[in-house]
Amino acid sequence: MEPVEERLTALEAKVHASLAEMEQARRDRENLEAKLQALHADLRSRQHEIVTLQAERERDAVALARLRAERDEVRARVEGLLGEIAHLEAAMQGAGT
Prior knowledge:
Oligomer: single chain
Low-confidence stretches: none
Shape: rod-shaped
Structural class: mainly alpha
Distance between the termini: 140 Å
Order of helices and strands: H
């Protein structure tokens, strides 16, 4: 009977080892799932940040276009005023001679 008891003891040890491995695999899986959830949350956060930055970029592009249009308008006015000043100076020089 002794060999049967030894075999049962060995089998019991293998069962305990298998259960311990299964428990470790379960913990590893839970850890990986937690990491995956954290990565998904980080990805969602980054996607939100990208959308926000794209919206800011579009607003900046609109503002830049508006400022360029204003600059061109001011430049045109200044050039017009300089032209008028040149005409006035020419008229004053003509009147003075």
